[in-house]
Amino acid sequence: MSCTNNAPPFQLTSYRTPSTVVSDAVYQVIRGCFYGGVWGMVTPFHAPGSIGVLEEKKTGVFKAARPFSSFRSIAHNGAIFGTIMGIQRLSSKSLELLRQREDYINDIFGFGVTYKYYDIFLASAEKRLLIHNRIFGVAVLTAVAYGHVAV
């Protein structure tokens, strides 16, 4: 017996309008913030600008942070994880909407966009990290405002 699959190529199932793409990206940002917050509670790394980081710079010796020791670390990691997940989903699903196809090329494109965003804003100078934080704040406020206006 031959294995033939006469199924049509992947069809768009849920991302038919820009509002569904944006709402899914906002959902991914919220999920990422939750995951990042959980990681921030138990991460051994100190939050940027904290006393632990200053001590590490002064002594040159890494000393792991205690679990649940820094609320700044929770917010910092939440913002990082949230934007990474949101950028990936927004770029991937936007390309899916433009191409009207659901396949792995969309995900590869999303990973590429996310890597460039990480490289430009998160893995470089402190000034760019501040720009990232402002972009994240504006995105959260825009999502909240959109949620109140659209309903």
| Portion in beta strands | under 5%
Q: What is the molecular shape?
A: elongated
Question: Biggest sheet, open or closed, and with what strands and sense?
Answer: none
Structural class: mainly alpha
List the helices and strands in order: HHHHH
Radius of gyration in whole Å, from Cα?
A: 19 Å
Which parts are unreliable, with pLDDT below 50 for 5 consecutive residues or more? none
The average pLDDT value, as a whole number, equals 82
If helices are DSSP runs of H or I spanning 4 or more residues, what is the number of helices?
Answer: 5
Termini, distance in Å?
A: 54 Å
Q: How much helix is in the residues?
A: over 70%
Number of strands: 0
Chart the SSEs and their pairings:
Layout: H1 18-42, H2 51-59, H3 71-99, H4 104-122, H5 126-150
Helix pairs in contact: 1-3, 3-4
Structure write-up:
- By secondary structure, this protein is an all-alpha fold.
- Helices cover 71% and strands 0% of the residues.
- The chain contains five helices and no strands.
- Helix 1 (18-42) packs antiparallel against helix 3 and helix 3 (71-99) packs antiparallel against helix 4.
- The chain starts with 17 loop residues before the first helix and ends with a helix.
- The relative contact order is 0.14.
